[in-house]
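Hello support,

Our group uses your service weekly, and this is the first time we've seen a run hang past the timeout. The protein is PDZ domain-containing protein. I'm not sure whether the cause is the sequence or the server load. Input pasted verbatim:
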Amino acid sequence: MKKTHIIAALLLSTVAALTFYWLWSADAPNADSNQLDNAQQAPAEAPGTPFIAGRVVDSTGRPIEGATVDTTDGASAVTDAAGEFRLEELEPGAYRLDARADDFVSAGPEAVRRVEVVLSDDSDAGVAGLELVLRRPAEVSGRIVASGRAVSDANISIYYLSADGLDGRLDPFVTDGVAKSGADGSFALDKVAPGRLRLLVEAKEHALAESRELYLEPGETLEDLVIDLAPSATVYGEVVDTAGNPVRAELVLRGGPLARSRKVTADTSGTYAFHNVPAGTFILEATASGYRTEKIDAVEAAADEPTSVDVVMEAAKGIFGRVVDPNGEPVASSFVRLRPPQGRWKFLRTDDDGRFQWDNPQHDSYTATAISQHYELSRPTHVTVGAESTLELRAGGAVSGRVVGPDGRPVNSFTVGVEAIETKGPRPYRPRSAGLEKVNDSSGRFRFDSLRPGTYWFRVQTNRYASASSEPVVVRAGSETSGVTIRVGEAGRVTGQVTDAKTGAPVAGASVMIFDPTSPFQANSTRTDARGRYDIDGVAPGRRSLRVAKKGYLSTVSAGVSVGPGGATTRDVQIRKQKPGEAMQFHGIGAVLMKTDKGVVIRNTMDGHPAAEFGLQARDVILAVDGEPVDGLRLDEVVEKIRGQQGVPVELEIDREGEGRFSTEIERGSVVVKKRGR
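Update from on-call engineer: The timeout came from a worker crash unrelated to the input. Re-ran successfully.
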């Protein structure tokens, strides 16, 4: 039986394993990002003596001539006019590369910024296509003072909260002793790596001070920065329980003039001390296993004499305990699901020491399960109020594989991450939390050592080819799934024009991005030129969606863009002015979906939209979209197939309990999504 219904309204959002997945969620990549993969195509390399080759560029992608690239064992090369280098006659093994050039800098200490490259024993190929990025240095100058008076001989260091190294983002780090202040308190830093940072200042009789947060662009000059040092203060005391026994607690001092919190651990006698802190008002927090967390507000630290603050800790109440790995080590940022005898579940998050605590539970006992993206769930454990519990996560599984190009040869420089996960039981974390692995290996091999058992899809990004996804990979507890092969191929392009829906005038400066909420990588995007035209290169072949955003206009998703390898696909998009309370518009059928053991199921339909007006019902199972079975597809892949262009119908095959199978065709329309709370 086939039914047809034409409706000019639409919305499609989904729920995965009882968790809502809204397509317009804040977890989507930043629509204002402006990053295109403009890396030059590296030529294919013939087999031979292992080598390392690539190019050195600046932050705009321009080649740097005359840059030196070296390894820790003495091999070196100088880049040519195209910024290219080649290290030859290398032996198999691990190499760590650094690059330098006049008038350029690279962030991070040498041990941190060097790029690791592996030449495998079983491969006579090399690693080609590396791209090392150097940046123009920034300059910072100013004065160090204390109550307006110059402070000489102050030691200045740089704390980087965020900075890009030679081939990607670095973890926070400190560069010590970059300069000292002069007799008049002045200082000048002329080779500062760009990034988000603070200057740290140490001087006698003064507390360690920090500048305000600075964000320096390549080549930027910042002058007249004044850092005012505060007199040094001390906060000390004892930590005891209600019976007066010492407690070896962990104490954190935060707030007030501190940009970063300070942490100390009380000794066996319960004594602690914070030295060399700026005078001011702070919050003191003490934590210890088996005790309630104690927080003391408004701790006044004066410069003229030490401030004594004793802490009395009460035995923990409620539900509390610790999550550990199979080796007994604490697991930070894991989740604990508490299931009561009746009512809703409660989720807790562990701290840096693996501890969790809930002071005011509604029931006397719960069934607790620890959850982590890197381990098998802990066994369900009965926990009761007032009794400390230890939840032990079980061993996860490992995955190893390789990335190959269209010719089947290894791709030796890429980044791999988790795109999607399907697991049994709750999953209160996003797939991308598993992290990214940057790989430079002549064999094209990658490995994830510890993952929660389940079915995974991995995504690969390279400079040379389009991003690509793996087939489903099953991860089993305590074992390794090997032999995974991800094949990458030629990328496509999407071009077009963005115009005003009312006037037809081109819209310049609009952000146009490939809308791919499941991708672990930054969105491929660009901005329209003065004629409203855009051109996005490096797009993975397949069915894609665009998201177009411009201040003052309603953000619009244009779906159903068919991208082929090596060619260009044109999609023009009209956007209209945004009205108060509106968030986004796109096209679909107006149903909320979830994936169950039965397949992709309609959880509910939305009033006033095609699915509801046609008569689709909750618990209807979607078997096929436009004649293609959805069995084996991820939920987001089904969503992508159902979304499309306005006015273009979509055919669904439905299985309804008690009625059997039937097909229906619904014309997609436009729906405006309202902002939350409206």
